Amino acid sequence: MTSTSGAASSSKICFNSDCNDLKSERPRKGWRLRTGELAELCDRCACAFEEGRFCDTFHSKASGWRNCESCGKRVHCGCIVSFNAFTLLDAGGIECLACARKNVVLAPNSSWPPLLFHSSLSERFKDYSAKGWSQLAGSGPVPWRLSIPSLEKTKIEDFSERLMNGPLKLGAPDILENGNAGINCEEPPSSCLTKSQQPSLKEEPSNPPFGLAVPYTSPGDANGQIGVSGTHLRPNPQPPLAKQLHSNLHNGLDSSSETQIRNGRPRPDGRGRNQLFPRYWPRFTNQDLQQISGDSNSIITPLFEKMLSASDAGRIGRLVLPKKCAEAYFPAISQPEGLPLKVQDSKGKEWIFQFRFWPNNNSRMYVLEGVTPCIQNMQLQAGDVVTFSRLEPGGKLVMGFRKASTASATEQDNEAKNSSGVSMHGDAEMADPTSWSKVDKSGYIAKEALGTKLAASRKRKNSMLGSKSKRLRIDTKDLIELKLTWEEAQGLLRPPPNHVPSVVVIEGFEFEEYEDAPILGKPTIFATDNSGEKIQWAQCEDCFKWRRLPSNALLPSKWICSSNSWDPERSFCLAPQELTTEQLEDLLPHCNPAASKKMKAAKREPENVDALEGLDTLANLAILGEGEALPASSQATTKHPRHRPGCSCIVCIQPPSGKGPKHKQTCTCNVCQTVKRRFRTLMLRREKKQSQKEAETTCKKPQPSLPDKVLDDDPVPRTNAGNSSPNVKKVVSEGSDNDPNRVKSSTSPFKGQIDLNIQPEREEELSPGADSGSMMRLIQDATERYLRQQMLSSGGNSNSDATQTPPGGGSEGEKISSSVNLGSSHRDSDRDHPTVFSIKTSAPSSATG
DNA sequence: CGCACGCATGGGG
DNA sequence: GCCCCATGCGTGC
């Protein structure tokens, strides 16, 4: 903590905006800021914060107050300050820390002090906040841009909100309660991770076989612990100092107690804790995971990762663990002998390692012994990265890996080699080779560097394994790796070919459910031609020409003219493109800033958020390689080099089509949840659009001149008149968020591919105007406009609903299908999706493969 | 003699 | 100057 100085500390004024007092010489720490630092407060505010009175004092009039479901106590859930003061209940609602704690105590897994929980929670929250921040901030290279709920993105509140909405089980620590409630985080920073898990434990006493027992012990610090999403590292390289604080404050770290609890583990001095490298920080919170996954059973909490050193990968069989991580995520051990730790690898295989430490300079060096078999099994070598995650309930420890192999570039084919050990299922195809390789490169810099360096010389220190800094850097880049909004991701989902989704009604909305996990397909643009026939436009991978296809055509992610069996005349690249440039532009308004902005402006739906989170979760699962969510196919996965373990992109979360578990309607797995959410979102969006269109139609405002903007400008249907769908209108979500953060799909629309791995830096190239707006959105917008124009011209009215969907290629007639649905399934039978912008990828099955 | 174990060393941040 | 951690290396089996 000490080191925390930072931006937060730069000012001499209390960080509390509602207090302008000067900080004392030794400012007191408050909550963690997104930068990872702790807010520095004046004594008065610090006291309030530490006593859990901060929100009561300064935010009494703010929104976000809720009552504890158990005791009725009023808890402020709307800001970062009290992030850890409550726990989200599975059934909804929140519980103050005190009540949560009570429950926790009951937890079966007594081996770990509930405290941990708290700490975990706090940690989580921290992460959360951190995450949120970054996301919010947007500017950063945050990989995933989750869409933030409708809340204002900019505020921390969002986080809370999210949390609130989320189905977390965590027991949250509550600062309010005694300050120390329990948490003993010796090492404040890390501990929190587990919190969420803990709850689970409670719920499910019987821990899975794995039992990893990873105690949630630790507090160490890990900053990142919690889960957050994993995969990627936090964008910010800043140390998680805040955690400590939080822990302390919120969790109630009592230092004294902590210590004891920890089995005598030496507590690291504050310093160490803080120092966790960002790279270790998980991005996603368990909550995120949970929410998404919905699957209470499997919540993956990415813990940390480590690039294997020569020693680690050597025959000695000792894997040196980053001290902080070890202390934070692994069971506390007081004896050098440590204890056996059961770890499951990405293939579901269990390994038992001896987790121990060596006294070293008044400190400890933690190592996992007996890892050789595992490392060999995974074919890992120095430079590769092993990842550790915790599978919640049960706390099963999961070990994934990511190959660094430089050579790998060539070997990409080998899934194993490629990327992560974890499974990334997706279709490899999504990423085009090109991007892929790029990704790869940038993806893991360290590795890359490694490779190179290695080749050059194996000097250990300098090179490969690189310095810590390098690692950090890697993280950063990794962060960048995937930019996809939930909605965008949604758009990518499609039902597996030949699968007829069953319809499930959720919350009044019908959703399609697939027996098999949806797949990712090639992005296409659905539209209705002049004759009212529904069609879709797909772009050839080779010549980039857009070809008209039946609306029900499912395309592999890589589709080329020669595969155009629907139109022999255009089944070769030399054939002219039917679409004129203008038309194409209309369909793909990639450069329309207005649109993007508009999109941005759109409110986000909480659901989207959840979904996003879910994706992350899924990704994490994938990473973990737990068999559950992602079948072992780590293999099959995609070739998304940039997708690190934990990657939650659609590609990574989806098992290859046709593979993977079957999903029943009642299935609550991550994939299903995600799909459900996706549909929900789509529905809402669609309705909204429809209503808007109707409204517009009614008004006849269609201005030919402003085609592009028309829709944009009125995202919100002022008119209810069109009430085709009452509810929806408000939801403007379409785009969702907007935020700059969002990723754009990188791909250039023209290519018709969505590059999940887009590099932010390159965004500009691709879509100048849209920075944050994703291409998808743009496309959508464009499509809408286009359709709209058509409508106008044809005088059709849009009703909308009907449109496209018919599985059969519906030809329903509505000419106007104005909206573009991303990724809707073809089958959308629902009238709902007027236009579908589907991105399909190839299912594995699909040819591309 | 070879292997493991565990501590020591020292570069690097 | 401290801490972390990769590796070296002594010791014991």
SSE blueprint:
Layout: H1 7-10, E1 28-32, E2 38-41, H2 43-50, H3 54-58, E3 65-67, E4 74-76, E5 86-88, E6 94-96, H4 97-106, H5 114-137, H6 156-165, H7 188-191, H8 197-203, H9 241-252, H10 255-261, H11 270-274, H12 286-293, E7 300-307, H13 310-313, E8 318-321, H14 323-329, E9 339-345, E10 350-360, E11 363-369, H15 372-377, E12 385-391, H16 392-395, E13 396-402, H17 408-411, H18 415-418, H19 433-443, H20 445-456, H21 468-481, H22 486-492, E14 502-506, E15 509-513, E16 524-528, E17 534-539, E18 546-550, H23 581-587, H24 593-601, H25 606-624, H26 650-653, H27 670-699, H28 707-713, H29 760-766, H30 775-794, E19 820-822, E20 835-837
Parallel strand pairs: 9-13, 19-20
Antiparallel strand pairs: 1-2, 3-4, 5-6, 7-12, 8-11, 9-10, 10-11, 12-13, 14-15, 16-17, 17-18
Helix pairs in contact: 4-5, 5-6, 5-9, 12-25, 19-20, 22-27, 23-30, 24-28, 25-27, 28-30
The structure holds a DNA duplex (13 and 13 nucleotides).
